[in-house]
From TrEMBL:
Primary role: Allosteric enzyme that catalyzes the rate-limiting step in glycogen catabolism, the phosphorolytic cleavage of glycogen to produce glucose-1-phosphate, and plays a central role in maintaining cellular and organismal glucose homeostasis.
Organism phylogeny: Eukaryota, Viridiplantae, Streptophyta, Embryophyta, Bryophyta
Names of the cofactor(s): pyridoxal 5'-phosphate
UniProt key word Membrane: no
UniProt entry tagged with the keyword Nucleus: no
EC number: 2.4.1.1
Domain of life: Eukaryota
Included range, full protein: 205 to 1033 of 1033
Protein name: Alpha-1,4 glucan phosphorylase
Family under the similarity heading: Belongs to the glycogen phosphorylase family.
UniProt KW keywords: Carbohydrate metabolism, Glycosyltransferase, Pyridoxal phosphate, Transferase
Catalytic activity: [(1->4)-alpha-D-glucosyl](n) + phosphate = [(1->4)-alpha-D-glucosyl](n-1) + alpha-D-glucose 1-phosphate
Length: 829
């Protein structure tokens, strides 16, 4: 009483209590409010899209509320936080996920219903946020969901691309790329922070000066842009913990080059500044091939520098020295892409904050850790020294110094073995010198991890062998996981209800190990019946979609056999197509009596090819051509259908995965770092046809050998088989099928030649010829299992029951405990 500050606070508390309630009426009011005042439409007349926008805005209000509370809480606690730096976050849609996580889905459904709208229709209006290519970007998105759900203090940092991953259309069976200008329709999930900006510099010169006995470096850049923050609140499931994904957009810098405006060429001066925005414009669609393009390096430096400046600013709000920076800050590098952050943190600490090199290096090496997502060293980025010298001259100096000190240190361990030292060096010598970003990251990181057991072993034995020999303590494994919220509970509501009913609890949504409780019912005829009903319902939804997009009618009694992922030679979509051709050919040669024994299949293939990846594009064309031929063959009829689903993305995955009977994860043994869709399929009761690659091996272990179809070479055989491939004679069928393609059975004779050559004896790097027989045998085993409905259903249940280990929550906990050193932390009230 009488204290004005207290009165003000009370007033604010009371005001907040008046709205944002989550009963149906309050939600309706808030939706209608947004229709009128945000969308500026009449509440008597708004369409489904406007309904989506208003609904999204009303959900966003609720997210902001918990976001604010949460940020305040962690500020007060000053808890250690992990910052997840990633060039890609493949988020997909947000509406359904948010209302599920906030626990207000039913209210929203009813609220919309009473207003005359259908939630299911409304959620379909949302465009996917496709700020990623595939596995690496989707993993980042799963982490955010899990970090929020498990009450960790965490932020994601990335780039707010205006063009997400291209949209794929098919014209005459060929892939075409359409720009994904997703922000055109507005993005209600982000909050623009016009005042959270940082200057980002490029080019220019570095001056060295002696100041009071120490050498100082002043970088005078030639170009400067501004990074502007856009915050995307990420709600946890069933918790008030809403974390932040901060994405940076490039804007022309406000202050820089005021001088140049004195040139008389005012209009051109503005236009050239405007080009700054291009930095954050477009996501690179080549997943895992690097062309060393300047713009890509600019993007990397742009988002990493902004993020580190932001992290340091936040730290400085609470601390006057950097002594305990590493006790408060953990930075995870998602692959080598953000590695320029290492010299950038050094620059900020030494040049800007005035720390001694040794002190700064000590901090840096305690802050960073890195996850590697690929199996071969060739995919790790390298940047030419020349480009770095031009674009980031100060960083190049810092990299050289880091390298010199590092090589000095290892010399003490390994002596003057120059070959060995050259392999360890961060700088690759040669005609064109370059900086090996993987090596730089490894030298600076306290921990490096692979994404499955086998992959982490391969990192130690091959990719980073030289580093492993000197830093064995840095190496860990963290097998990937996926969020069971989006990938089971929300995308498969039928299964969700059934699991909850049979397990007697919903707790599996945050503790997936509870699914083992299903084991005991795997043969229970009642569960089996319900199980198949749910699966048929999901298949019917997918069948409707397939007919709508392709005109192909598919029967839900047929086995839905699915391979959806980026198109890559190592993933061997071609092997799948070859066996489809083989199957069609066998069916055509059967007597009517034999045909009655065939298990009808619908083969569904989907995925994008990088625009410049010709072989991958030819594979797509082959799938569509083969499909066209088979689908119209009267001799084959409903026994085999082949569908290429265009524009595979997160939302389509949510439709396809719950409807799949069989899914294929058939990369050459050891060639897939982990794979994560395999986990999603398993969780949803889909059986896997798999090679001994990445996490397939761990899945097999969890669900049991009898519940998965494994084939092909063993990882330890691959090197030898590759070496001997010139002498290898693939089976007769293999030659025959390749011959059919070569000889024009599917038209486009010329076009497919190069594709056929990739599997010619000496060329067959991915060993399609070697694995073909064993693949066909596995396919036969699949057919045999499918006709035994009781057995198949039991296998399906055992897949779901055994998938607990592949929850991202397990992965997150392992990172938190063994790498980041952070603890869950939540307000008690
Ligand atoms: C992928 C791996 O290919 C995949 O096996 C893994 O599951 C996934 O990362 C998540 O760890 N890699 C990528 O998507 N991209 C790159 C550049 O490796």
């Amino acid at each position: 009483v009488g204290n004005p500050e207290l009165q003000r606070r009370r007033r604010l508390m009371w005001l907040m209590d008046q709205y944002l309630k989550n009963d149906v009426l309050s939600i309706q009011k808030s939706i209608v409010d947004h229709v009128e005042y945000t969308i500026a439409r009449s509440r008597f007349k708004f369409d489904d899209f406007e309904a989506y926008k208003a609904t999204a805005n009303s959900v966003r209000d609720r997210l902001i509320e918990s976001w604010n509370d949460n940020q305040q809480f962690h500020r007060d606690m000053d808890s250690k936080r992990v910052y997840y730096l990633s060039m890609e976050f493949l988020m997909g849609r947000s509406l359904l996920n948010s209302i599920f996580n906030l626990g207000i889905k039913e209210q929203y459904a009813q609220a919309l219903n009473e207003l005359g709208y259908n939630l299911e229709v409304v959620v379909e209006q949302e465009r996917d946020a496709a700020l990623g290519n595939g596995g690496l970007g989707r993993l980042a998105a799963c982490f955010l969901d899990s970090l929020a759900t498990m009450n960790y203090s965490a932020w994601g940092y990335g780039i707010r691309y205006q063009y997400g991953l291209f949209r794929q259309t098919l014209q005459d069976g060929f892939q075409h790329e359409q720009p994904d200008y997703w922000l055109n329709v507005g993005n209600p999930w982000e909050i623009e922070r016009v005042h959270v900006t940082y200057p980002i510099s490029f080019y220019g010169k570095v001056e060295e000066k002696w100041v009071e006995g120490t050498k100082t470096f002043t970088w005078t850049p030639d170009e400067m842009v501004e990074a502007v923050a856009y915050d995307n609140p990420i709600p946890g499931y069933n918790t008030g913990n809403t974390i932040n994904l901060r994405l940076w957009a490039a804007k022309p810098s406000g202050e820089f080059d005021l001088q140049s405006f004195n040139t008389g060429d005012y209009v051109n001066a503005i236009l050239s500044k405007q080009r700054a925005e291009t930095i954050s414009n477009v996501l690179y669609p080549d997943d895992r091939t690097y062309q060393g393009k300047e713009l890509r390096l600019k993007q990397q430096y742009f988002f990493v520098s902004a993020s580190l400046q932001d992290i340091m600013r936040r730290f400085k709000d609470h601390h006057s020295t950097f002594d305990n920076f590493a006790d408060k800050v953990a930075v995870q590098l998602n692959d080598t892409h953000p590695t320029i952050g290492v010299p950038e943190l050094m620059r900020l600490l030494v040049d800007v904050e005035g720390l001694q090199w040794a002190k700064a290096w000590d901090i840096t090496t305690k802050v960073f850790s890195i996850t590697i997502h690929s199996v071969v060293a060739e995919t790790l980025e390298k940047w030419s020294v020349e480009l770095l010298q031009t674009l980031l001259p100060r960083h190049l100096q810092i990299i050289f110094k880091i390298n010199a000190m590092f090589l000095e240190e290892v010399k003490n361990k390994i002596g003057n073995d120059y070959d060995h030292l050259a392999r360890l060096s961060i700088i690759e010598e040669g005609e064109k010198k370059s900086v090996k970003m993987g090596s730089l990251a490894l030298v600076a990181s306290h921990t490096v991890n692979g994404v499955s057991k086998l992959h982490s072993e391969l990192l130690k034995e091959r990719v980073f062998k030289d580093f492993y020999d000197i830093f064995p303590h840095k190496f860990q494994n963290k097998t990937n996981g996926v969020t069971q919220r989006r990938w089971l509970a929300f995308c498969n509501p039928g299964l969700r209800d059934m699991l909850t009913k049979w397990l007697g609890t919903e707790a599996w949504i945050t503790n997936l190990d509870l699914l083992t409780g299903l084991h005991q019912y795997a043969s229970d005829p009642i569960l089996q019946k319900e199980w198949n009903l749910v699966r048929r319902h999901n298949k019917a939804r997918l069948a409707t979609y397939i007919e709508a997009i392709s005109g192909v009618k598919v029967s839900i009694d047929a086995m839905f056999d699915v391979q959806v992922k980026r198109i890559h030679q190592y993933k061997r979509q071609l092997l799948n197509v070859l066996s489809i051709i083989h199957r069609a050919d066998c069916i055509k040669n059967m007597s009517p009596a034999e045909k009655t024994k065939v298990v009808p299949r619908v083969c569904i293939i989907g995925g994008k090819a990088a625009p410049g990846y010709e072989i991958a594009k030819k594979i797509i064309k082959l799938v569509t051509t083969v499909g066209e031929k088979i689908n119209n063959d009267k001799d084959i009829g409903n026994l085999l259908k082949v569908v290429f689903v265009p524009d595979y993305n997160v939302s389509l995955a949510e439709l396809i995965i719950p409807a799949s009977d069989l899914s294929q994860h058939i990369s050459t043994a050891g060639n897939e770092a982990s794979g994560t869709s395999n986990m999603k399929f398993t969780m949803n009761g889909c059986l896997l046809l798999a090679t001994l690659s990445g996490s397939n091996i761990e899945i097999q272990k969890e669900i049991g050998d009898e519940n998965i179809f494994v084939f092909g070479a063993k990882p330890e055989e691959v090197d030898r088989l590759r070496a001997e491939r010139r002498q290898f004679q693939p089976p007769q069928e293999f030659h025959r099928i390749i011959g059919m393609i070569r000889n024009g059975k599917f038209g486009d004779t010329e076009y497919f030649q190069e594709l056929c050559q990739t599997v010619d004896g000496g060329n067959d790097f991915y060993l399609l010829g070697n694995d073909f027989s064993s693949y066909l045998e596995a396919q036969a085993a699949v057919d045999e299992a499918y006709v035994d409905r009781e057995r198949w259903t039991r296998m399906s249940i055992m897949n779901t029951a055994g998938s607990g280990n592949f929850s991202i929550d397990r992965t997150t906990r392992e990172y938190a405990e063994n790498i980041w050193g952070i603890k869950p932390c939540q307000p008690t009230s």
